[in-house]
Amino acid sequence: MLGFFVVSTGFTQEPLQSSTIELSMMDECIDDMFNNCIKEMEEQVQKIYFPRELKNENFKMAWDLSEDCAKQRLQRMQRKYSGLTINHTRAICVYTEEEPNMYVPLNAALRRGAAKYNTTDFQYHALYFWLTTALQILKSSNTAYRKTWDVYNGQVNQTIRFGYFASSSLKPDLSGFGNTTCFHIKTQLGAYIEDHSAVKGEDEVLIPSYEKFKIIKIVPDSYGELNCTKSLCWRV
């Protein structure tokens, strides 16, 4: 099913820098959904990727710091989501924790990492696998809002993907995330992670790199409760 959004020019965990971004299918991004191979990939992650990637100092620090965060959240949520494991909740805690920052290098590696995905040049197989499969367990249909400092260009009826883990929120009025381009998004594959996140109060919905959206409207100013310079309405 294709999601949708409205783009209003103007939520993201991106640096406060303005740039112009052309919306596209992000053909060079890593978009593995692990269809029909989750068990096999779990074994590879445990035996090969995770031990190797723990040699990354920042990832090891983030993983070690995530233990308390993850245990507290897992105890509350495991009855509701039987497939959820401690590694899933640790991955969400690692991703959402401000320090050490892991979401920026992970997303940078995802955007254009397809050619490196099956090599040691991609250093986040474990984090990507556990975060992706966590979102697949937690996914639900949500209307979410994403605010950015950047200028996004796209066309009505265009099908696009973010190509990385895109943060959005159930709240249209969050401040501090930008108001240059805003997205009013209907997501089918994103997951509400507030109950698992290291950061509280943002009502975050995290959208995976592979979810496709169709732009159904572009508004040159604010859209509904989105107070932005430019708004996009995306439908997927």
TrEMBL record:
Coiled coil: none annotated. It comes from the Eukaryota. Keywords: Glycosyltransferase, NAD, NADP, Nucleotidyltransferase, Transferase. It catalyses: L-arginyl-[protein] + NAD(+) = N(omega)-(ADP-D-ribosyl)-L-arginyl-[protein] + nicotinamide + H(+). InterPro entries: ADP-ribosyltransferase_ARG (IPR050999), ART (IPR000768). Its EC number is 2.4.2.31. One of its GO terms (molecular function) is nucleotidyltransferase activity. It holds the Pfam family ART. It is an enzyme of class 2 (transferase). Belongs to the Arg-specific ADP-ribosyltransferase family. PANTHER family: ADP-RIBOSYLTRANSFERASE, NAD(P)(+)--ARGININE ADP-RIBOSYLTRANSFERASE. This is NAD(P)(+)--arginine ADP-ribosyltransferase.
